[in-house]
Amino acid sequence: MTPPPDTQSGSLSRGLSLVAATAIVVGGIIGTGVFLKARVMTCNVGSPGLVMLAWVSAGMLSLAGALTYAELAAMMPRAGGEYVFMREAYGRRMAVVYGWTQVSITYTASQAAKGIALAIFLNALLGGALSGTFFSATIAGRTIPFGGVQIVALTAIAAIAVINCAAVSVNGAISIVLTLLKAALIVGVGVGAFVFAKGDWTNFATPDSAGVCAGVTDAARGGFAGFGAAMLGALWAYDGWSNMTQIAGEVRNPQRNVPLGLIAGVLIVIALYLMVNAAYFYVLPAGDIANVAASSSVATEVARRFLGATAVSFIAATMMTSTLGSLHTGVLAGARIPYAMSRDGLFFKLLGVATARTHVPANALIALAIWSGILVLSGSFDELTDSVIFASYLFYGLVTASVFIFRKTQPDAERPYRTWGYPIVPAIFLAVTAWLLITTLITSPRQSLIGLVIVSLGFPLYLYFSRRESHLT
């Protein structure tokens, strides 16, 4: 069932090697979560052992998803990834609903948030030089500031979009460099903690008994609910492993390299996350980690033990580099979804055009960058991102379930890679996803409802484009 690249992927070129594909997976996952989540997770579960268990569990769940996605991507290595899987399994209507959700909120709000995060870290590195506000506007009771942080965020998003207009092989090389750099910085924090800081292995046996846990509610502390909250935090830090499927149409020898890149990338991230979190607890007892101010990070406090006053600048630079790499990968992957929709006649025609020279969807890159910029200026992207959590898990579940559908409806299709542990591995992923959906619906009903409303707007969009296509034909 391997499609001819020219007919299935338009004029995109297969310029990504296995190393580049793996770097895109790693770079898409590692953002700021590994630096920021340890404090809250310690407050959630109360002991280093349970924190490490949450990281392992979330990593194994992400690996289960990657193992399942690897079969789908090897079967259908086309631009658009999850959009293609949704279309083939559930039809064009549900594929458009998925694509609309990703384009309108999931990818674009994520890039807006990363742009702001990048600016905040740069502001810390510059000693607050970007803190000023040039002017502000009040819209519907919401005060929207515009200052140095917003300018840097907009500039970063625009620059990354322009860079992604270069050939995909060039951006693959950029992903490799950025991923190696952020991995080296994470390893630097871990090795520095173990070698140069005064630590104590007995910290792993010392629970948090008197942590302040600023901003963490009692409902999210201890027991099953606390572990669930810690899992959600860890899963947020692992999110992004599916990005590579969106660009499977541009990976060389995709039947081999797409599954290998997915699985190797997730395993590398699991190893890095476990190492750096072990370093945190080696240096700081659980109570000290729980007492870290919400405005700081555990990584900064650990780095202080072997870098002194320069720790703040080092960690700010590390998080800025990490965010930059994640932003680059997100922009690269996100543009392939509207491109694939447009090639099917189900989105704006202009977005389905690839440049003649570099063979990339430049129009889609620019369009998504503009929308991400609007979300930066709206000041509401955090709320929008929270509101789409429910929908994101919904589509993760639907895509994973499609492996069962394809095994039944296309039993003889060529499968260069078959999901290891099938049907248990995808079933576990679906069961945990269902639990997360129910948990989110109960604990965040308003955000879940808003997310479902955003998803539902994809149905009239499908009607519009499907009718337009029928009139044109």
CATH architecture heading = Up-down Bundle
- Helicity level, as a percent range? over 70%
β-strand number: 2
Distance between the termini: 27 Å
Structural class: mainly alpha
Name the CATH superfamily classification.
Answer: Amino acid/polyamine transporter I
The proportion of residues in beta strands is under 5%
**Strands of the largest sheet, in order across it?**
1-2
Highest CATH level, the class: Mainly Alpha
Order of helices and strands: HHHHHHHEEHHHHHHHHHHHHHHH
Query: Which sheet architecture does the biggest sheet show?
Result: 2 strands, antiparallel
* Gross geometry: globular
Helical region count? 22
- Outline the low-pLDDT stretches: 1-10
- How many domain modules? 1
Produce the secondary structure layout.
Elements: H1 5-8, H2 18-29, H3 33-36, H4 38-45, H5 48-75, H6 82-90, H7 92-125, E1 133-139, E2 142-147, H8 148-163, H9 168-196, H10 223-238, H11 243-246, H12 254-283, H13 286-290, H14 298-307, H15 311-334, H16 336-343, H17 362-378, H18 381-387, H19 389-409, H20 424-443, H21 445-456, H22 458-472
Antiparallel strand pairs: 1-2
Helix pairs in contact: 2-9, 2-12, 2-15, 4-5, 4-10, 5-10, 5-12, 5-19, 5-20, 6-7, 6-19, 7-8, 7-15, 7-17, 7-18, 7-22, 8-15, 8-17, 9-12, 9-14, 9-15, 14-15, 18-21, 19-20, 20-21
